[in-house]
From TrEMBL:
A Gene Ontology term for the protein's cellular component: mitochondrion
InterPro entries hit by this protein: aa-tRNA-synth_II/BPL/LPL, Anticodon-bd, Anticodon-bd_dom_sf, Gly-tRNA_synthase/POLG2
Ranges where the Anticodon-binding domain occurs: 104-194
PANTHER family named among the record's database cross-references: GLYCINE--TRNA LIGASE, GLYCYL-TRNA SYNTHETASE/DNA POLYMERASE SUBUNIT GAMMA-2
Record-given protein name: Glycyl-tRNA synthetase
UniProt record, GO biological process: mitochondrial glycyl-tRNA aminoacylation
Documented EC number(s): 6.1.1.14
Pfam families: HGTP_anticodon
UniProt keywords, alphabetically: Aminoacyl-tRNA synthetase, Ligase
């Protein structure tokens, strides 16, 4: 009977030895949890003390291991920083803070004209010397598409190089979130970018140092 076995399994060594003595003397009486009593004899129950050699003891530990992966933190950061432009929901923006963005500056020549190569190399070298990470996007896509896809990559600033840049040594500086553009000499723009990257100034202060770009830069 399962109820009787449950009671016997709860007995400690002292209770089992007492039960053994009662069985050897005749009968033993046990009480169940519900108040019923049963009489047992040696034909029904046998109590023996045995020694077993146990070479392997297997157990499953209960461990509380609070942990979290860095992937979830990064995903939360990306999700928090990503948004779409109101005027065009197809254009996504990853608004990484400048200090977090892996690439700080995108160099964008308006075409693949070889006349831009010396200036691109010069600007790249000056940015590298200032400790500013930059990359060149000289693909055949339009400037708008190139800026748009790098906005989704979180690149905070873009420097546009056109034919007027070659003749005047001036370039335009674009800010990712506002798409605002400023113009200045190569050295002035790089100096402003260095201050932005180091956190010495914000974009509002940068706008005081560089005049607004009206979309037209005449070629001398």
């Amino acid at each position: 009977m399962p109820a009787i076995l449950d009671v016997l399994n709860k007995y400690n060594d002292e209770e089992l030895m007492k039960l053994k003595s009662e069985l050897e003397a005749g009968n033993a009486t046990i009480a169940l949890d519900d108040g019923r009593t049963f009489t047992l004899n040696k034909d029904l129950v046998t109590v023996e003390r045995k020694t077993f050699k146990q070479s392997v003891r297997e157990f499953t530990p209960n461990v509380i291991e609070p942990s979290f992966g860095i992937g979830r933190i990064l995903y939360s950061l990306l999700e928090h920083s990503y948004w779409r432009r109101e005027q065009d929901v197809a254009r996504g923006v990853l608004s990484f803070p400048t200090c977090v963005a892996p690439t700080k500056v995108l160099l964008v020549p308006i075409s693949a004209n070889t006349a831009f190569l010396p200036l691109i190399k010069e600007i790249s070298a000056k940015l590298r010397a200032a400790g500013i990470s930059a990359r060149v996007d000289d693909s055949s896509a339009t400037i708008g598409k190139r800026y748009s896809r790098n906005d989704e990559l979180g690149t905070p600033y873009g420097i546009t190089i056109d034919f007027a840049s070659v003749s005047k040594n001036t370039v335009t500086l674009r800010e990712r979130d506002t798409t605002d553009q400023r113009i200045g000499s190569v050295d002035d723009v790089i100096s402003v970018v260095a201050d932005l990257v180091s956190g010495n100034i914000d974009w509002v202060q940068a706008c005081r140092k560089l005049p607004a770009y009206d979309g037209v830069q005449a070629v001398d």
